[in-house]
Amino acid sequence: MSAPFDPAFEAHLARGVTTVCHAWAITRTDGQVFAFTDHDRELIFAGITFRADTGMSALALQQTTGLSVDNTEALGALSDASLREDEIEQGRFDRAEVLGWLVNWADPAQHWLNFRGTIGELTRAQGGFRAELRGLTEELNRPLGRSYQKPCTAVLGDGDCRFDLSREGYFTDLPVAEVRDARRFVWKDFPSFDFEWFLRGRLEVMEGSAAGLWGEIKTDTIEDGARVIELWEPMRGGITPGTQVRLVAGCDKRKESCRLKFNNFDNFQGFPDLPGEDWLLAVPTSSKANTGGSLR
Hints:
single chain, about 300 residues, mainly beta, Pnp Oxidase, Chain A, Thrombin, subunit H, 7-stranded antiparallel β-sheet, about 10% helix, flat, Phage_phiJL001_Gp84, Phage_phiJL001_Gp84_C, DUF2163 domain-containing protein
């Protein structure tokens, strides 16, 4: 997606001999903004200061008409002053918004927004990074519409579910007692919660370098008298004993759990009485009733 040309900038480009460079602004989902330019001096426009000492550069921007996906790549060096390796490892730049400009560095007020999109795949190699930049039309590749299935299609606590996860008894805050392989969290002294209460729930990090990150809970078991919470994937960010975390109750999407565990059946988004394949393939018969049960 690109913006209309500023007439003054268009006149500058028409001269043939130009003073232009590129500038990018990355806005993470947590609101932090990082801005860079491939010019040798910092630039200031649109209320943003674009740094020049980051080693950022970009490949050619491929833009098309119609609904084809615009894409490009950005390259850069990793440093504590710009994009840090640990923050990339933690996934903090996933789905970050990216704005790209063509700028007259002699008069930064003359600039043209020629790219708007998000960060796709972000990889690290040899002290640098390579970021795939995806245009706005990338969202059109996302399947839309509602799925009709027996289990609930809502995410616990979202706008469809509408369950208040801050209700007492559905979360607990506690410090990490023991962590193994960044994915198994063990407590010998654990609050009184039912077995598997947190299965399919979330573990959220409340403080430290990994604050704001979360992981989905794979199992909630008791081993040798200790409560063990295991995640599907290792937690990025280096969580150590004593780090404060929050455990949020999980939902298995069944109507029984929605009604009995959460008392939220009015907002159940599944179709528990949806006929199965046997009913759909049933043929007329005079020997027995077609009740929707198994044909066998």
